[in-house]
Amino acid sequence: MSKVPEDDVLRIGQHSFQSRLLVGTGKYADFEQTRAAIIASEAEIVTVALRRTNLGQEKNQANLLDYLPEGITLLPNTAGCYTCDDAVRVCRLARDLLSGHSLVKLEVLGDPTTLYPDVVATLKAAEILVAEDFEVMVYTNDDPIVAKQLEQIGCVSVMPLAAPIGSGLGVCNPHNIVTILENAKVPILVDAGVGTASDAAIAMELGCEGVLMNTAIAEADDPILMASAMKYGILAGRQAYLAGRMPKRKNASASSPIENTIAARRDRN
Length: 269
Known about the structure:
This protein is α/β, with parallel strands linked by helices. It has nine helices and ten strands. A five-stranded parallel β-sheet has the order 5-4-3-10-9. Strands 6-7-8 form a three-stranded parallel β-sheet. It has a two-stranded antiparallel ribbon with strand order 1-2.
């Protein structure tokens, strides 16, 4: 049975992963549901907001680390940070809590209504963190110029939004995503806006290296089933991208053309 080649792995900085689905840990009913969804997704990278989730900084509260499947790569993120200084401080805290962990997801938000990134603050924070030897995966808008600037700073992955965080609108501007992909030398992963498995497949068909999502799974009627659906959506999109889709045509193209059929040869004679 044909499948994605085993050597088709997601490479981010010094790390390699078989799964191209990255999942969050917020908005679930409890840590048990979080764990079940992660297992169903078969994700290998799990992002966690240090400002909202206990990883040991609160000694008397349940610790998310006790519920994560074995072998998971943690991706601490700076969700909820609205300034460069706050984002940098949270990344440093993650490094302290996780014994020198350097892989982080940077996001610096511009306002609480749209949750769009503050691009200027994001660029500044990225420069500081890269200089401090963090491996920075960075959330940004779908501006190809900004994406290239973040790559040039040294971010190991650039993560443009497909749509506003938590909106579930899907890939709203595929042209910009493709433009970013065409000019990138680091992995481009869609971050934010995915609502269902077909959205994830579309992002992958465009050529994205992966998709990060949280709300689409956690707020589904059945988060565990949706986590599984997203796993297959990512796989289907990747297979379709590697296979190469047929060209779009203005007119019909018969699946069973009449050229070289018996009737066509008789008519010629």
